[in-house]
Write a sequence for this structure.
């Protein structure tokens, strides 16, 4: 077995190292190592409960006080884990912005959206007075909200779901961030609006030169949007690779199972195949590989200890005792 491998050298904007999170003594994140480079689009995929959102909430200091966080999250060399609140206040929204899953709950229902965007502009850009309203209108125009001048005086409940998501994107862009973390940004939207929001995020990212971390269950969206993909399961990264390589030939049985569960867009029609079972409760994880109870090719070695994330080739990392390139796996359907 090869030695644990570090990601290929790149100019990292934000690097996570051995990031661990526990709640009331229960570990939900097990030593995550991950980085996102300048201008890069990183996708994070996995079932609910895999630890995708917790990873970035921990890095930005947004978890509740009972969360115990260890490890490192460094932004251009500045440590964020354990940083002072005033330091995190300048980073969140200024250097790193986050779009949350539910824009309705993320916006203050009793404040007009113009005021909410104005607070971000005052804090991170130092604007005041008429300059705030002018910049807020520009941001509304940028994200495609019609009649921007008037809508700045509206409350969140006066917007549709898609428009509220656009408001959230405008707020995220208010601080001109280096990194945009989009946590399931299209979950509650219909398909047409989803496409519009994703096109908007991609366009703004290219124009502003931002890095993007996209957390999503939609593998099609990840394939179209991201340069690199990390697959998470039970609080660990189980595979990381360039997007084109991962979708062409996933190595980890879990990643293969995710792709096999997608309906084909062309070729022969086939029965959809699902991964049996569910993500394990973090309070009762298997002793070895967390995916072993659901894996169609489990081996005795899988039951002894969680496999280390190691290098497979130049640009891929894999946490599995199998070399998927040389050991054929039975399909989940056959299992």
């Amino acid at each position: 077995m090869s030695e644990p491998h570090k990601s290929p050298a790149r100019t990292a904007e934000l690097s996570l190292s051995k990031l661990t999170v526990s709640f009331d003594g229960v570990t939900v994140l097990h030593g995550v190592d991950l980085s996102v480079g300048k201008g890069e689009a990183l996708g994070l995929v996995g079932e609910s409960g895999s630890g995708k959102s917790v990873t970035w909430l921990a890095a930005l200091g947004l978890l509740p006080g009972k969360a115990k966080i260890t490890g490192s999250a460094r932004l251009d060399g500045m440590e964020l884990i354990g940083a002072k609140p005033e330091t995190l206040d300048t980073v969140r929204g200024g250097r790193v912005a986050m779009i949350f899953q539910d824009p309705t709950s993320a916006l203050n229902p009793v404040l007009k959206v113009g005021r909410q965007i104005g607070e971000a502009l005052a804090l991170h850009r130092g604007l005041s007075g008429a300059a705030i309203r002018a910049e807020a209108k520009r941001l509304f125009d940028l994200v495609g909200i019609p009649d921007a001048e008037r809508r700045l005086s509206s409350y969140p409940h006066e917007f549709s779901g898609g428009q509220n998501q656009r408001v959230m994107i405008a707020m995220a862009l208010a601080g001109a961030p280096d990194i945009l973390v989009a946590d399931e940004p299209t979950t509650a939207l219909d398909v047409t609006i989803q496409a519009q929001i994703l096109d908007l995020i991609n366009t703004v990212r290219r124009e502003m030169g931002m890095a993007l971390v996209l957390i999503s269950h939609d593998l099609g969206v990840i394939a179209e949007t991201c340069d690199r993909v990390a697959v998470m399961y039970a609080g660990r990264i189980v595979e990381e690779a360039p997007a084109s390589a991962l979708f062409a030939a996933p190595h980890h049985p879990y990643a293969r199972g995710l792709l096999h569960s997608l309906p084909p867009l062309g070729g022969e029609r086939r029965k959809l195949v699902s991964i049996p079972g569910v993500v394990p409760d973090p309070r009762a994880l298997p002793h070895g590989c967390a995916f072993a109870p659901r894996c169609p090719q489990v081996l005795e070695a899988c039951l002894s200890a969680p496999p280390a994330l190691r290098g497979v080739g130049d640009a891929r990392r894999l946490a599995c005792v199998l070399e998927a390139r040389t050991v054929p796996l039975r399909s989940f359907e056959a299992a």
